[in-house]
Write a structure and sequence with these properties.
Blueprint: H1 2-20, E1 25-33, E2 40-47, E3 60-64, H2 73-76, H3 80-90, E4 97-101, H4 118-133, E5 143-148, H5 150-161, E6 168-172, H6 179-186, H7 192-198, H8 209-214, H9 216-222, H10 225-228, E7 232-238, H11 244-257, E8 262-266, H12 272-291
Parallel strand pairs: 3-4, 3-5, 5-6, 6-7, 7-8
Antiparallel strand pairs: 1-2, 2-4
């Protein structure tokens, strides 16, 4: 009887605490008609608690989904709205707006054939469009980019190619591949996801130039450390993630280049259990950068 009573009390307390946490607002089903891509780009938005009652402008995080997911994944499976609500209420992160665009399976880049210019759309159309719709601080030091898997790679690509646009980058389980891995994929039956975006091996079995242009590891080799260091980087990957090799190579490349960054390996695999439980670390890191 005593145990049953104690359980009831604890349950009531937990429900009360959850109910008392100020909740932000999730808006789904939004879209932008893109002239660059020729198709509508769907997106979801998280607005922090107090947004509608205030007049202030907020920092923003562009949170990118993984392969075959869409703009609803980070809320539906990642529960990022709940994580953000609790972290804002506790003071662990500042209030921020989170924008979640749908990228289909574009890898967030311009494809080699020029038929889908997703990166150009994102930088030239989508970000300016969204930041006119909501009260967002448009200075690059208050603009972060994050994501998981394909979206983690996309976040790194954007941060490296557009350090004037993004001030902080926090990829999770980023789909970063070494040249050796990509060459192996292209020589086997695992290349269908790759060739439509980056192209195929040339007649001399050399990697396509489009891949070399967008490879995160190749970009780090080419870029001056000072330019890379314009962005603050937080890199996170599970110890059982199949993408461990590229993430480890990314850490080594940044270390060898002398670029300060945070690199975290935690227990977990390539799944929503890992991302749902660890996205808070990336939000905290970006929040600290926004705080200055």
């Amino acid at each position: 009887m005593k145990k049953s009573f104690l359980f009831s009390v604890l349950f009531c307390i937990s429900v009360t605490l959850f109910a008392s946490t100020p909740q932000g607002k999730v808006i789904e089903g939004q879209r932008m008609a893109s002239k660059i891509t020729g198709y509508d780009v769907n997106y979801s938005v998280y607005l922090p608690p107090g947004y509608e009652a205030s007049q202030r402008a907020y920092p923003v995080v562009y949170l990118l989904h993984g392969y075959t997911d869409n703009e609803t994944a980070w809320v539906q499976f990642g529960e990022v709205n709940r994580v953000a609500d609790e972290a804002i209420a506790s003071g662990d992160i500042p209030p921020m707006i989170i924008i979640m665009p749908d990228a289909k399976v574009t890898w967030y880049v311009n494809n080699h054939s020029g038929t889908d210019q997703y990166e150009d759309m994102m930088i030239e159309e989508f970000i300016p469009f969204v930041e006119k719709q909501y009260r967002i601080r448009s200075d690059h030091s208050f603009r972060g980019v994050s994501g998981l898997s394909m979206g983690g790679n996309g976040a790194l690509v954007y941060a490296l190619r557009h350090p004037d646009v993004f001030g902080v980058c926090a990829p999770f389980s980023a789909a970063v591949y070494t040249n050796e891995e990509v060459e192996e994929y292209l020589k086997k039956d695992q290349k269908q996801w790759f060739t439509s975006i980056y192209g195929d091996l040339d007649k001399n079995d050399q990697l396509p130039q489009h891949w070399m242009e967008y490879s995160v590891l190749e970009m780090i080799k080419r870029m001056p450390a000072k330019e890379i260091s314009q962005v603050k980087f937080y890199i996170d990957c599970g110890d059982d993630d199949f993408l461990y090799k590229g993430n480890a190579a990314l850490h080594v490349a940044l270390r060898d280049k002398g670029v300060a960054h945070q690199f975290r390996i935690r227990e977990g695999a390539h799944n929503w259990t890992y991302w749902r439980g660890n996205v808070i670390h990336g939000l905290k890191f970006m929040g600290e950068v926004f705080h200055r």
